[in-house]
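User: My collaborator sent over this chain with a note saying "see what the structure looks like." That's all I know about it. Can you take a look?
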Amino acid sequence: MSDFYSKLRSIFPPDRLYEDAARVTPYVSDGLTVFREEPKAVVMPISNEEVADTLKLCHEFEIPFVARGSGTSLSGGSLPIRDGIVISLNRLNQILDLDPDNRTARVQPGVINSEISAAAADHGLYFAPDPSSQTVCTIGGNLAFNSGGAHCLKYGMTSNHILGLTVALPDGTVAELGNDSLENAGPDCVGLFVGSEGLLGIALEIQVRLMPVPESFQTILASYDSLEAAGDAVAAVVASGILPGAMEIMDRLAIEAAEAAVSAGYPEDAEACLIVELDGETAAVDADFQALSTTMEQTGAKEVRVAQSTEERLLIWKGRKSAFSAVGRLSPDYIVQDGVVPRSKLGQALKDISRFSSEAGLRVANVFHAGDGNLHPLILFDATEADGLEKAEALAGRILRLCLELGGSITGEHGVGVEKLEYMPDMFSPTDLDAFNRIRRAIDPKEISNRGKMLPSKEAPALSSQGPHPLEKAGVISRM
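Assistant: Without extra context I'll predict from the sequence alone. Here is the result:
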C-alpha cells in the first residue's frame, strides 16, 4: 500500500494531495450528511492526464475511488469509500469551447451549472437543466445523476442535453463517446454513461447542447386550500394540452420556510402553491396563457397571481429554489426524498404522504417538480432524539414504496447512491439487476469506481432503515 501512496505523491504536489485529517475532513460526507467516511487521501487533478494516471494507479493497486464535484449529492452518491481516495474535480473548471453557431459548448466536469448559461448569455443561449443547486453544483455531478430541475417538464433532463463525452474509464483508458450531433449511430454509449453515478468512470470533457433563451415568459402563482387540490390542478393543466416550461408545487411548510428566507411574496395562508410558467415565442405564449388562465379558473384556486415583471418572476423562482435550504429554519435535521409518481396519481400520492406523516408523528414539507411527478418530500426530524433518524428513514422508505405502488420510480434525479439500495430489488427484477452488474463489471471488473453505490451486491448489501447500515458492516461507510 505504501507503494501506491508513494506513486500518488509523484503525480500530485502537496498542495493538491490531502492526506492529513484537517484537510480531508471537508470531504467525509456529501449532501446526505447522515453517513460519513474518511478517505485515505483527496487528490485535485488539473489535467486529463492526471485523472487518467490516477485511475491507472488505482486499477493497478485495486484502490477504490470516488469522483466528487461540489458534493451536493442528496443520496450519498459522492460519499467516500473506506480505504479509498476522493478525486476532486473542482479545478477542472474551464469552458473549453463555446460554439454559438452550432449551439454547443465543451466544458470540464468542474464547471458550475449556472456558469454555462452565464457564458452563453451574450449569444442569446443558455443551458436548460436547472436543478435547485445550479449556482453551486457541477456539470460532472449533473451528468452522473442525470439531474433535471424545474424546467425538465418541457426541456428534459441532463441526458437530453449531452452530445459527446471524453471519459476516463476505471482502468485509466481515455475514450470518446458520442459526437457533436443529436443523431448517433450504434449503441447509445453517452446515454449509458449519463446517470451511471460514477460506476463507469469519470467524465473529463462534456459536449453540451445549448438552447435559445425564450423570447417571452408568463409565470402564474396559484394558491389552494389543500395539497391534493394543487396536485389535481397539475393533472388538469396537462390534460388541457398545454405544455408549460415548468410546474412546481410547494406546501404550507415549504412556503413558510421560503418566506422566512427570501420574502418571495407567497400567500402564507395557503396550504399549497402551484407555480406554472410558460415560455417561448411571444405569440405562442400569449395564446397558451389565455388557455391556461381558463384552466386555472376551473381548478378551485383560492387566488391566482401573474408575475408583472421580470423581477417578480425571478423572486417567485428564488423562493422555490431556496426551499430545500430554507427548511433548515423549521427543523434541525431533515431527509430529502426523491420518488416519482405518474402525474395522474399526484393527488393520491400527496394525500397518502399526509397520512403517513400523521401516523409517523413527523412533519413533511413537500416541494416538487409537479410537471413530471417528481416528489421531493422533506422529512423533518430531530437527530438528538433516540429514534429520530430511524423514524425519519422508515417514513422515507414508506414514501418510496408508495411511489412504486402507484407505478412510479424510487428516484427522479437525486440518484440511488447508498440511500436507496434497499429499494432497487423492489423496482427491478433479479434479471435486470444481474444485467446492470454485468455491464458494470465489463467496464470495471475490479469494481473500484464508486464501489458500494447504486447497485446492491453481496459485498455491499441493501440499505435498511432498521439497525446498522449494511455498508457499515461491510466496512465501506460509517454512520455519523
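A starting point for your reply to your collaborator: Confidence is low (pLDDT under 50) at residues 459-467, 469-480.
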